[in-house]
Design a protein that fits this description.
Blueprint lengths: L3 E4 L2 E4 L4 E7 L7 E8 L6 E6 L5 E3 L7 E6 L4 E6 L8 E9 L7 E2 L3 E6 L1
Parallel strand pairs: 2-11
Antiparallel strand pairs: 1-3, 3-8, 4-5, 4-9, 5-6, 7-8, 9-10, 9-11
Length: 118
């Protein structure tokens, strides 16, 4: 079983940066694909970025060029560096994990709030 804990959220001015962390328990974290998702008030949860167990990554168009996802398997942690933040990036950010051979994300963290002021 993998448990995920997000951190690094906060209040930042537009144009600023934040680095979110997703710390995982479990000895087999290196075999998991990890994704970041976000949900703004009264909106659907949306995909932000993902990094596979092999290190391949994909970004949503809304954050492409402004964000970078990385992982440190020795620390069981995935990071999401977000730059040039915009007020529309305001949301609760969740990380999720799925084993390399699964399609659905079946482990989710509790989320961390990111608020970008204009």
């Amino acid at each position: 079983q993998v448990q995920l804990v997000e951190s690094g959220g906060g209040l930042v001015q537009a144009g600023g940066s934040l680095r979110l962390s997703c710390a995982a328990s479990g000895r087999t974290f290196g075999s998991y694909t990890v994704g970041w998702f976000r949900q703004a008030p009264e909106k659907e949860r949306e995909f932000v970025a993902t990094i596979s167990w092999r290190g391949d990554f994909v970004y949503a168009d809304s954050v492409k060029g402004r964000s970078s996802i990385s992982r440190d398997n020795a620390k069981n942690t995935v990071y999401l560096q977000m730059n040039s933040l915009k007020p529309e990036d305001t949301a609760v950010y969740f990380c999720a994990a799925r084993r390399y051979d699964r399609v659905e994300y079946d482990h989710w963290g509790q989320g961390t709030q990111v608020t970008v002021s204009s």
